[in-house]
Design a protein that fits this description.
homodimer, Arc Repressor Mutant, subunit A, two-stranded antiparallel ribbon, elongated, DNA-binding
DNA sequence: TAATCTTGGACTCTCTGGGTCGTATTTATG
DNA sequence: CATAAATACGACCCAGAGAGTCCAAGATTA
């Protein structure tokens, strides 16, 4: 269906929220989840992935939470997707596992032509930053 | 995961194959399925949808089969997707059921910004035609 | 030491994409 | 007219992934 996952949506909503206050401001997962009616546990997972990807920083313990680690204008949506879903937005699975991974092997005739579409898609998601969704 | 469905892939492969011979040429589903190792029954379903969508024509009975109903250069990939999957390539489900269908209602803050991405995506899939995947 | 966070694994549940099967219908041809 | 070769179409199954939940463990501050 060619859709963004809920996780990515939640992640973008959270990042947008964070990007609207000065960098370094700390938000808790609960706070973010309540504000937008997102399932708390799931959002927590998403935020943890964003931490591992270096998008945000985390502080544990009381008074802990998450804060932006990158400036929103330097944070492309494509990067957020890759970190959360562990994959780029792909038109066909041919391109997920490197070259020559097509399940049709020699018979796949649309692989190359779709490559162009793929590149254009990448540009689209690379260009748009978190800053732009504010 | 933002991927094209197998059905669409099969459809594009079949359409590309048909587009390489002069228009009006008749191909059977079995013929197409064998050529590219696609599951016959599934491809048949796809071809039937393409018939209903006016993309190809069908002839029943012996010596029957399918033939292109449109010139490949006038057949955008977006149209093929819509016919087969019964939906446009959507970035978020917000846009599938008209306006104000967001599951977050008033709290969804990324709906509008992603609209831009959506439009760019539409342009991409509208521009590319079956002719271009040959 | 207690309260409040994040971390992270395990688990369930539902939906849909992918695929299969069976049968009815159409039609050319011997 | 009978048969074979097509499409047409509905019903069904199955595995996997996406979405969501639960719980225990570790960190930190007050």
């Amino acid at each position: 269906m060619l859709q963004l996952s809920k996780k990515v949506e939640y992640g973008l909503i959270a990042l947008r929220h964070m990007a609207m206050k000065p960098i370094g401001h700390v938000f808790t997962a609960k706070e973010l989840a309540n504000e937008y009616d997102m399932p708390y546990e799931l959002l927590a997972k998403v935020l943890q992935k964003l931490v591992k990807g270096g998008v945000i920083r985390s502080l544990q313990g009381v008074k802990g939470g998450y804060s932006l680690a990158k400036r929103p204008e330097e944070l492309p949506v494509s990067f957020v997707i890759r970190v959360i879903d562990e994959s780029k937005p792909m038109v066909t699975e041919c391109y997920t596992d490197g070259p020559d991974s097509c399940y049709l092997f020699g018979n796949c005739t649309i692989r190359r032509p779709l490559g162009k579409l793929q590149r254009n898609l990448n540009v689209l998601f690379d260009k748009m930053t978190v800053q732009e969704i504010i």
